[in-house]
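Memo to structure team: turn this sequence into structure tokens by end of day. - J.P.
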Amino acid sequence: QYNMPPTGSGNYFPYPSCTWWANQRYRQLHGVYVPWTSQSNAWQWTARAYQFGWQVSSRASWGAIIDLQPWVQGAYGYGHVGVVERVYWDGSVLASNMSWWPYPNQVTYVHFYPGYGVTFIQW
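Reply from structure team:
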């Protein structure tokens, strides 16, 4: 039974966290914010997406949020989220990010691969 709104009303994540960027960029591309604001460290976004009725896939699509679990492909202990800007022929992606080491306060573009501990989230 859910009474949870399917989309959010603002960006409540702390700037310049990866969660702030992913929420902001997703809204730029699709016009909606993610609805989860609590229990929402990057690694928790996949579970929260399921709870709020968003789509979760192991396959990349343009504009999706990529969610990396802790210690996967360079993510630290809270995991990491970014937004897919390009999908390559092999299924790998170029994602835009903030708070990706060693550039915490700027947007960086990183090549990630589908696989263990990687999911793609969309409304």
